UniProtKB/TrEMBL annotation:
Signal peptide segment: 1-26
InterPro entries reported in the protein's UniProt record: GSG-1 (IPR012478), PMP-22/EMP/MP20-like (IPR050579)
A biological process from GO: regulation of signaling
Species this chain originates from: Piaya cayana (Common squirrel cuckoo)
Main location class: membrane
Family per record: Belongs to the GSG1 family.
Database matches in Gene3D superfamilies: 1.20.140.150
Tagged with keyword Hydrolase: no
Superkingdom per UniProt: Eukaryota
GO cellular component: glutamatergic synapse; postsynaptic density membrane
Compartments where found: Cell membrane; Synapse
Transmembrane segments: 127-146, 158-178
Record's protein name: Germ cell-specific gene 1-like protein
UniProt gene name: Gsg1l_1
Length: 204
C-alpha cells in the first residue's frame, strides 16, 4: 500500500516536472507561430546573383545611374521571395535574404498599440502559470519526501492538484490571449512583417 502510494507520488512529480520544463522552454522560445512572409526580391548586383530581379540592360550602368528606368519581365509571385519566420512572445525572427542567419525584432514592438495591453496580460498569465506549476511541484515533492502520515499526504496532494489545475487554466487563457494578439498583428502589423502564410509552432 505504502509502496503503491509512493510510486503514484513519484509519477505525479515526474509528470509535473516535465510540464514545468516544457512550459518554461515554450515561454522563452520563438516558435509559437511560424510560416512564410512575402517580400520583394532585391535588385541583382555584384554580390547578389540569385533570388533577385535582373533588370534588362547594362547592370553596372543601372547600379551607378539612378535616372535609368528599370524594367523586369518577372510578374506575379516571381517578383517576390518567400522567407521563413518564427515568432514567440518576446521576439519575431525572420530569414535574412541578403545574408546568412536570421534577423530578430521585438514582437512587443510589432504588435498594434491597441493590443499591447492584452499581450502584457498574456505575459503575466504565462508567468503565473509557471509559478503555480512550481508551487504544485513543490507540494508534490513535499508529499513524496516528507509526508509521514497518509492524511498529511492526501492534504498535500489535494493542494497540489488545485494549484496544478489552476495553472492549466491560466496557461490556456494566456495562450488564447497571445493567439488573439498575433492574429490582429497579422492584419494590422507593419507591412514588412505581415505573414503570407502561418501556422502554430512546436512551442505553442
Amino acid at each position: 500500500m505504502k509502496t503503491n502510494r509512493r510510486c503514484r507520488a513519484l509519477l505525479a512529480v515526474s509528470l509535473n516536472l516535465m510540464a514545468l520544463l516544457f512550459s518554461t522552454t515554450a515561454f522563452i522560445t520563438t516558435h509559437w507561430c511560424e510560416g512564410t512572409q512575402r517580400v520583394p526580391k532585391p535588385s541583382c548586383g555584384k554580390e547578389k546573383k540569385t533570388n533577385c530581379l535582373n533588370y534588362s540592360g547594362n547592370e553596372t550602368a543601372n547600379e551607378t545611374n539612378q535616372n535609368v528606368v528599370h524594367y523586369s519581365w518577372e510578374t506575379g509571385d516571381d517578383r517576390f521571395l518567400f522567407r521563413y519566420f518564427h515568432t514567440g512572445i518576446w521576439y519575431s525572427c525572420e530569414e535574412n535574404i541578403n545574408a546568412a542567419g536570421e534577423k530578430c525584432r521585438s514582437f512587443i514592438d510589432l504588435a498594434p498599440a491597441s493590443e499591447k495591453g492584452v499581450l502584457w496580460l498574456s505575459v503575466v498569465s504565462e508567468v503565473l502559470y509557471i509559478m503555480l506549476l512550481v508551487v504544485g511541484f513543490s507540494l508534490m515533492c513535499l508529499e513524496l519526501f516528507h509526508s509521514s502520515s497518509v492524511i498529511d499526504g492526501l492534504k498535500l496532494n489535494a493542494f497540489a492538484a488545485v494549484f496544478t489545475v489552476l495553472s492549466g487554466l491560466l496557461g490556456m487563457v494566456a495562450h488564447m490571449m497571445y493567439t488573439q494578439v498575433f492574429q490582429v498583428t497579422v492584419s494590422l502589423g507593419p507591412e514588412d512583417w505581415r505573414p503570407h502564410s502561418w501556422d502554430y509552432g512546436w512551442s505553442f
